[in-house]
Design a protein that fits this description.
This protein is of the alpha+beta class and 147 residues long. It contains 3 helices and 8 strands.
């Protein structure tokens, strides 16, 4: 039997001296990922993403960017149960310069695009990250603010 699970999170970025930097978190198993976690109760996906950024990165001053949501899925085993997880990722703009490491993670780093692309360990999130970066570039090229 396969159990379905749903998570949501955000590709979080900040502007540093005119350059975009993205927050990556190192999970306990060792994967570099974005803040994300399971939907609780009757939360909407956006509410889950907001809560996870606050809990896993300690960032309160940020905003989700309109018009972007992508998902990926994977299957894993836990305690003899097969779990099919779908993860929905949004983009969030942080107005805070730093983040705080949560107990769920071993490390955190702000990385520029190329560094982040080479650090993300799973294909699904890496592909969505590429799309998110392009989406932000398009907004910037259209002289639209992402704030």
């Amino acid at each position: 039997m396969t159990v379905e699970a749903v998570s949501a999170g955000a590709i979080l970025f900040r502007d540093t001296r005119g350059h975009r930097e993205y927050l990556l978190l190192k999970s306990r198993p060792g994967d570099w990922e974005f803040p994300k976690g399971g939907v609780e109760g009757d939360e909407e996906l956006q509410q889950t993403a907001i809560r996870e950024v606050q809990e896993e990165a300690g960032i309160e001053d940020f905003r989700l960017i309109d018009g972007f949501r992508k998902d990926y899925d994977y299957v894993f085993e836990a305690n003899g149960t097969t779990i099919h997880k779908t993860v929905h990722l949004f983009i969030a703009h942080s107005f805070e310069a730093s983040a705080e490491l949560s107990k769920e993670h071993r490390d955190l780093q702000w990385r520029d695009y190329e560094q982040a692309l080479n650090t993300i360990t799973q294909d699904g999130p890496r592909e969505i990250f590429e799309d998110a970066h392009e989406y932000l570039d398009e907004l910037q090229n259209q002289n639209e603010e992402y704030v």
